UniProtKB/TrEMBL annotation:
Full protein name: Murein L,D-transpeptidase YcbB/YkuD
Molecular function as annotated in GO: carboxypeptidase activity; transferase activity
Record carries keyword Transferase: yes
Lineage: Bacteria, Pseudomonadati, Pseudomonadota, Alphaproteobacteria, Sphingomonadales
Key words of the record: Cell shape, Cell wall biogenesis/degradation, Peptidoglycan synthesis, Transferase
One of the protein's GO biological processes: cell wall organization
Pfam families: Scaffold, YkuD
Homology family: Belongs to the YkuD family.
Length: 404
């Protein structure tokens, strides 16, 4: 491993020195030059003492050839795979040991690009990772660190090749249809790249078909149900988060647009609306939240959007959250919840919510999330119950996928 002096000498104040100035310090031939071209990889190589990942004794390892083969497959969902520069990689693999360091870094750069492509769909289909624990490592240094931390390069590459069952199904459909494959099918395959292939327990919500699947460990579908997703103009966003807890007997905090809608009805003469819908008015959220007398509200201003007011529906059989909601903390305010409006699940078009995901059978989901022992609660409002372990949920847009 290089000493601190040698490492500092390598980097200097203006970047890497020429290859000949560092080769005798223990850096494989060509590596310094390559790291100057790909500086984002330099911290990961420095961390490992500039130890090669894909070469041994100046020769490509079997794992390097596996990776080149993986890149050469030209994944049908990655249209820009040319940036892996396969011809150059193949030429370097066949070059003399003097090029080993250059080959090692070039292949690591291709790996970083491949992982970023695989983990994150193209811009039009990307997920918003609302929980940092789920976000895949996509920076070059993070990818290389993960590869070195694996039991072996072969094991790491095997993990990269693991695919979600939905991805496999869509990939087979694209392969079968060939040039006749539809844009919706290809878009679905692109979006499905973000789904996990590691076999962990998780949930998938398909916005396009308004359906939800529960996956047990190993990729087996445990259950399926219909859902209701965001209506046009308030579409449910593609996102990935962790369901961390459930809330029994929840309140429903009305979104600002729905609060204005109710204000307009009150202005139009519906004086009993708040009582009929069991809605209370509150001051701003916080420790000093207090009830507000409806008679003190300037309803004309609220209806016009000139003033905001916080409305909260009390728990009960008609509460829009139903009897339970499942929380994946995020700034978008999106979560999964029960609903009293069960008839809506029979509709073909189930785009009707304000962005959240309404569940056909919330108790069935609770049973699965809590390993067969869902908490009953005692009727107290807003009772929180932490899950035995957080469960990932992927909300994606797969227009070509449906339970049928």
């Amino acid at each position: 491993m290089l000493c601190a002096v040698a490492a500092a000498e390598l980097w200097g104040s203006t970047g890497l020195h020429a290859p000949h100035a560092t080769a005798h310090a223990g850096i494989p031939a060509g590596m310094a030059e390559a790291l100057r071209l790909h500086p984002a990889l330099a911290p990961a190589y420095a961390e490992a003492g500039y130890r090669p990942l894909w070469t041994s004794g100046g020769q490509p390892t079997p794992a390097s050839r596996t990776l080149i083969g993986l890149l050469a497959e030209r994944d049908r969902a990655i249209p820009n795979s040319a940036h892996y520069d396969l011809p150059r990689l193949q030429a370097l693999a066949a070059a003399s040991p003097a090029q080993a360091g250059l080959f090692d870094v070039a292949l690591s750069q291709a790996l970083a690009a491949f992982v970023a492509d695989t983990a994150q769909p193209s811009p039009g289909h990307r997920l918003y990772y609302v929980d940092a624990e789920l976000a895949p490592p996509t920076s070059p240094a993070a990818v290389l660190h993960a590869a070195r931390q694996a039991p072996s390069p072969e094991r790491y590459l095997a993990g990269l090749q693991a695919r979600h069952p939905f991805y496999t199904r869509l990939d087979q459909a694209v392969a079968a249809s060939g040039a006749a494959s539809t844009p919706g099918l290809r878009a679905s395959l692109d979006a499905a790249r973000a789904l996990p292939g590691d076999g962990r327990r998780h949930i998938v919500v398909n916005i396009a078909s308004a359906e939800l699947w529960m996956f047990d460990a190993g990729g087996r579908i445990a259950d399926h149900m219909r859902v209701i997703v965001g209506k046009p103009g308030m579409a449910t966003p593609p996102m990935a988060g962790l369901i961390r807890y459930a809330v029994r007997t929840p309140y429903w905090n009305l979104p600002p647009d729905l609060a204005r809608e109710r204000a307009r009805k009150i202005v139009a003469g519906d004086a009993d609306l708040l009582t009929r819908e069991r809605i209370e008015l509150l001051s701003a959220a916080g420790a000093d939240t207090r009830p507000i007398d409806p008679a003190s509200v300037d309803w004309q201003a609220v209806a016009a959007g000139a003033r905001t007011i916080r409305m909260r529906q009390l728990p009960g059989p008609d509460n829009m959250m139903g009897q339970i909601k499942f929380m994946l903390p995020n700034r978008l305010g999106i979560y999964l919840h029960d609903t009293p409006m069960k008839a809506a699940f029979a509709h073909a078009d189930r785009r009707a919510s304000s962005g959240c995901v309404r569940l056909e059978d919330a108790e069935r989901l609770a049973h699965w999330l809590f390993d067969g022992h869902p908490p009953a609660g005692n009727g107290t409002a807003e009772q929180r119950f932490d899950l035995p372990r957080p469960v990932p949920v992927y909300i994606v847009n797969l227009p070509a996928l449906s339970a049928g």
